[in-house]
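User: Just a sanity check before I run the rest of the batch. Below are the structure tokens for the first item. I only need the designed sequence back.
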């Protein structure tokens, strides 16, 4: 079976070789789990160039099997730490192209640091250290906010994201900064202003994975793998507690891989991944062109993947 780190650009979680008993999973490549949250339906300052810098830390001491139980034997003492630094470059035009929507382009470049340790000496999944992750490019269409008597009521965007296999990858290692595969990951993002102070935002993704022609397959003789397609989403609700300065609320994400992984064209039952996470967060409006977002996520109900905690800080500047 193939195993990889997937960072979320666009989301990051550990994808790795599950070589202990039964069917093997942990095949999902890069997805956005928890990188985006509040006021996601539109850029904070209108058209122009934006630069965002993300720093995310993920920790896990629990690898889960297809039933959500411990994957490794008692005493394995698995301990995964992942740091992601991701730079995002956005251009939002002021030129309508479709039903009033304005075109733009999004580029994301992650750098990933991995550290996997155990309490026992055994042939468990090993990491490939630090390096460049998989670069993402996404053309998008952003619609202007729908306005009401007291300000914006609704804003939304559609983006067609493609991830390229640019990241550091070694098929002899189970945890890699890169995935060695392409993905197509379109989404719809929106923000609804329930009241001028209360917002609800969501980002709904469909993920299609392509083949990995050099998988880490644990000696199983598999020449090609393809992770099954999936649905994943980020969601957040915030309330403005200091006018024009601070919003606080809750944020979360959900992943459901509805197709099992393929090994040389054959689906392997019991390899689909799933996870849910929720936690607190907030956004600080530092000025008209500068925003700081802070999020924490605590995972549960994981299947065929790690289960842990994720912490994200994002700074957004509009030029």
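Assistant: Here's the designed sequence for the first item:
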């Amino acid at each position: 079976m193939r195993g990889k780190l997937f960072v979320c650009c666009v989301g990051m979680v550990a994808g790795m070789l599950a070589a202990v008993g039964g069917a093997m999973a942990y095949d999902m490549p890069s997805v956005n789990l928890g990188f985006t949250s509040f006021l996601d339906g539109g850029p904070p300052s209108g058209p122009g160039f934006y630069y965002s810098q993300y720093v995310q830390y993920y920790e896990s001491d629990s690898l889960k099997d297809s039933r959500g139980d411990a994957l490794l034997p008692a005493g394995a003492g698995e301990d995964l730490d992942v740091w992601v630094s991701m730079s995002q470059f956005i251009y939002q035009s002021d030129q309508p192209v479709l039903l009033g929507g304005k075109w733009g382009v999004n580029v994301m470049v992650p750098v990933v640091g991995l550290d996997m340790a155990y309490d026992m000496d055994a042939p468990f999944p090993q990491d490939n250290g630090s390096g460049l992750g998989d670069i993402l490019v996404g053309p998008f269409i952003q619609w202007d906010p729908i306005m009401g008597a007291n300000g914006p009521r609704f804003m939304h965007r559609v983006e067609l994201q493609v991830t390229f296999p640019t990241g550091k990858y070694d098929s002899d290692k189970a945890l890699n900064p890169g995935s060695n595969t392409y993905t197509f990951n379109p989404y719809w993002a929106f923000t609804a202003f329930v009241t001028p102070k209360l917002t609800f935002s969501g980002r709904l993704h469909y993920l299609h994975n392509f083949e990995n022609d050099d998988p880490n397959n644990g000696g199983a003789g598999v020449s090609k793998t393809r992770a099954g397609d999936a649905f994943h989403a980020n969601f957040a609700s915030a309330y403005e507690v200091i006018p024009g300065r601070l919003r606080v609320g809750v944020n979360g994400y959900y992943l459901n891989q509805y197709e099992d992984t393929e090994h040389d064209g054959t689906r392997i039952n019991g390899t689909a991944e799933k996870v849910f996470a929720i936690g607190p967060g907030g956004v600080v409006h530092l000025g008209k062109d500068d925003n700081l977002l802070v999020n924490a996520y605590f995972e549960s109900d994981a299947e065929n993947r790690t289960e842990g905690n994720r912490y994200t800080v994002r700074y957004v500047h509009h030029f």
